[in-house]
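@channel anyone free to eyeball this complex?
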Amino acid sequence: MASEQNTEQQPFSWPVRIYYEDTDAGGVVYHSNYLKFFERARTEMLRSCGINQNTLLEDNVAFVVRHMDIDFIRGARLDDELTVQTTISQLGRATIIFCQELVNSDNTVLCRASVKVGCVNLTVMRPISIPQHIKAEILRDR
Amino acid sequence: MASEQNTEQQPFSWPVRIYYEDTDAGGVVYHSNYLKFFERARTEMLRSCGINQNTLLEDNVAFVVRHMDIDFIRGARLDDELTVQTTISQLGRATIIFCQELVNSDNTVLCRASVKVGCVNLTVMRPISIPQHIKAEILRDR
Amino acid sequence: MASEQNTEQQPFSWPVRIYYEDTDAGGVVYHSNYLKFFERARTEMLRSCGINQNTLLEDNVAFVVRHMDIDFIRGARLDDELTVQTTISQLGRATIIFCQELVNSDNTVLCRASVKVGCVNLTVMRPISIPQHIKAEILRDR
Amino acid sequence: MASEQNTEQQPFSWPVRIYYEDTDAGGVVYHSNYLKFFERARTEMLRSCGINQNTLLEDNVAFVVRHMDIDFIRGARLDDELTVQTTISQLGRATIIFCQELVNSDNTVLCRASVKVGCVNLTVMRPISIPQHIKAEILRDR
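replying in thread with the prediction:
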């Protein structure tokens, strides 16, 4: 099955508040923590489609990040109230590509990432096709 | 079997360097990160006794922290070269109590903790007795 | 000024969702991450009293954790929806003691902590009295 | 000034040990933590050139990550002993591009990243040229 493109979908929005735990001595968010915010948003987007990662995990299935391309544009600060905007740019046989942006209330983009995740069987640590019911749930929601 | 006390043992020393990842916007180490330094030191102390946590994990056994009492005395800063000093203050049937101090090169204590860990079967998440060979390895090294 | 006790206050509730970032290879939340959940809840409790830590930080003032006594009772798992319940058990001249519990939907306590925080001038890293307007805001809300 | 290329330099090696703090419930290292390993290695590479980030920070100067392109090839596991290999692929007026690989003892690459960092004045959060003495120290070591 060919990958599917959809540029018309509404982005999925998920709020992020910045706490001390996220910042570093430079006074802004430590760079690797943006990846956590993006992962929370992908998790919640999947949950909104009825996909529960804990249920997958009990079957030894997980989505793992294969590739990320990230622009760190502007540092977020303590107490900032931000939003992660997430869209799916490609849904393939075994991988999903997400486009994600962390924006502030002015819609200024602080961080932007393209994230390729793959479906994996954790027992043997091998890539597997995305289960059909998961693809169906993602497609129904777009 | 009664718990065993030993106040004469030499502390086990493990170096810690402070990186940006450890600090927060207050300019010092974020408080929960001291717990990571202590855990690294306990891991290395056990490793020095020939106890490999990954091997335990493959048998679904892990040491989990049950209780901590921590004094955060003085904030560590970026680039600081510190040392964790660890002793075992009590070795019980199912638990170990570690005394740990994070000190700088002047031997000033920055953080001090008493840490009680218990042995757990991860499959059923139940406490179990510490395996005899592990107790033997710890006792031999004291 | 004597410390003030108030046992009748309603706990402040703050929700926590468990993500992959919070867990470890044992399948449950890594112990130091509970401290982050507690800190988020203290921050939100103060925010609900009108106290913004970023504003304090701009004046080089911060609340820092001085002492914690923590019981790790039961491991939280991926996707768990939990609540931190926070009360102030003591409001002193320069310190606040918080009592915090992380509970699940059955009101089972997974983790419990007593947390003493002190007010600090970050420029000189010295303890200072809690500013009067902050004490007033905390007391008004109890 | 044109950027400078040097493909003959020896990579700078920095060891990484995997602890519980680094892993997640999937049994492997949580993806954002690889960025911490890479940052430790860049810090140590700069330190080996005589560049101390804490000294820079006291002058309100920091290197911040602008862009990363990362391949997560194979998950690292608890207790793994790994090495980060770092080279500088480009030294520009205001930016440095690092090539970094996390390898195991078989020299298998687990994670690979291209990391662009920029020099920033933290007071005004503006890009600045890399101080000349820092460029000189980096070039001398290649």
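from a first look: The mean pLDDT of chain A is 92.
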